[in-house]
């Protein structure tokens, strides 16, 4: 435990960066530096003196956790009503300590207390040294005589200084996930938030970037990446204040959620995650991707199963015989697993479309008279694995579950029910519902121990947010998420290894809190490969390729090769009618899976370099390079069909060893098609990075995959 001198600096350093906190003479704790680390730690203390901005009338403008109701005049990180009804809060430094969590990971905790009230906040900074990533969260507690109301309770409060700030944010809707927008932040507050409860990212995810002084490029510029590790309502305020500094306050959305904190109870916020790079977006994303694989994503360093899914191919229309054929196709095409999607359950109200049956997780006797067990067996006979779709948080009003347990459903009894995809959300704040949802998964595995994969879907948002059992309705949104995480914890305690896909009617729920439990996510129901090039590009800034489930489907107008190449850029799957493929198409798919099996270690664990941005030209190009720089693969696409379009200029590679020689070879060619690249393609890393190579894209050659090998 550090002893407080009158004024001192607490530097939080990682391999390249630093965040410096200063304890002032009056014990206010402020951020005095955020950026590239200084050579001499002693010099952080000199930073404030070199800024000559207008006065800080509050002494709190750069507070590490801005309290409200006392001197503060800006957006607060925390707002409370004390047990005696008083609304003021001040927070003074008390102590800090640093602990080693594991190799390369340290945890700094700083205790702040109100000098007047028995109210305390502890800030946590978990620093991942090599990846330059910080996870920051907060614990709030008090010893007042009576409850305290928390009106705002952020995870983190950053303070940045620059000439200007450029925000890159995302918006979307079903089939339109991860649409980027970049704009200059003007004075005042810009808020990124969601109030959807579940499927929280449908219109806006919490991931964002802020460039300092000018929009950062792929390989140059100062940039911060941020994301809240939370699957429910979030709120991120970005405030440029009158001093021209940027305050970023991120946490659970306090919308409709004033929290009653009992004496002695600890309110722990989710973590806000951030990284900084002075070398642009590419370096920042590689840091985040490797952090995710090393520490966060379930089984991030492990393997994944290629699969055949039946959703696009059959929708709800299948039976045991049809599935038996699909299992044969799974083997025929050469993937690892067959994934049975929606429609396999419910009897009184059979799940033959999306109007009925959700909640009744018994095999539909008409479609599957011999149950899932026989399908699992049939899969074994075909030497493939078997996985299954569930949506256990939801219920159709037309279901036995709804009839039996109307009080388990999120709804306002006094108001007319309002549906999203004809369904309602189950009340996960209720422990009985938590048991039920856990039981859906546990029941499937208990009856079918060989089950090898789960696709967990979540298609509805929360309307009429109300629990029949929760005493304090203001806690509903928060308790829902606590309930969900409790269930996922229980599932992972009993089934630590089974791969699970995080799906939410597409990418409506993709965040690092959920991805602790899931091996992969479903980016979007939009599998048109042209759209996916753009979407996967944006996801890749924040999530590693191994976590992105990409399926080849019949969406879009692109040829099968194009569709397959795009799906290979993450975790490959298929959702097509294999039996209807032409001989050549089938041959191509089988060979593509073999090619993918060879490339997947590099795609999953390699470093990703964005070479040509589809938003800036007609060519998209992405490189995956193994850590030892010996193996790589470049995916190249023509994203415009205008007259005479093609790759007019060479594509410059990145990250290679300049001294080594590399052989380039086109792979994944359609049967009977030979590469337009003739002769041996051997170049030095130096040449490939300074001049580049040309994939020879044109209107007849719109998708080219190049394998790279160091000689
Ligand atoms: C939405 C998912 O995103 C789809 O992939 C599919 O599983 C359907 N739900 C099934 O209802």
Output the keywords.
single chain; 711 residues; alpha+beta; 10-stranded antiparallel β-sheet; 8-stranded parallel β-sheet; 19% helix; 30% strand; globular; binds (2R,3S,4R,5S)-2-(hydroxymethyl)piperidine-3,4,5-triol
How are the SSEs placed, and which strands pair?
Blueprint: E1 8-13, E2 17-23, E3 29-36, E4 78-81, E5 92-102, E6 105-113, E7 119-128, E8 133-142, E9 148-161, E10 165-171, E11 179-184, E12 188-193, E13 208-212, E14 222-228, E15 234-240, E16 245-252, E17 259-261, E18 267-268, E19 272-277, H1 280-296, E20 307-309, H2 311-314, H3 320-333, E21 337-340, H4 371-381, E22 385-390, E23 394-395, H5 400-404, E24 424-425, H6 431-447, E25 453-456, H7 476-494, E26 500-502, E27 520-521, H8 529-540, E28 549-552, H9 560-567, E29 571-574, H10 583-605, E30 607-612, E31 619-625, E32 631-638, E33 661-667, E34 681-684, H11 685-690, E35 703-710
Parallel strand pairs: 20-21, 20-29, 21-22, 22-25, 25-26, 26-27, 28-29
Antiparallel strand pairs: 1-2, 2-3, 4-9, 5-6, 6-7, 7-8, 8-18, 8-19, 9-16, 9-17, 10-11, 10-13, 12-15, 13-14, 14-19, 15-16, 23-24, 30-31, 31-32, 32-35, 33-34, 33-35
The structure holds (2R,3S,4R,5S)-2-(hydroxymethyl)piperidine-3,4,5-triol (DGJ).
Your description of this structure?
This protein has 11 helices and 35 strands. The chain has 711 residues and is α+β, with helices and mostly antiparallel strands. The longest helix is centred in the last third of the chain and has 23 residues, at 583-605.
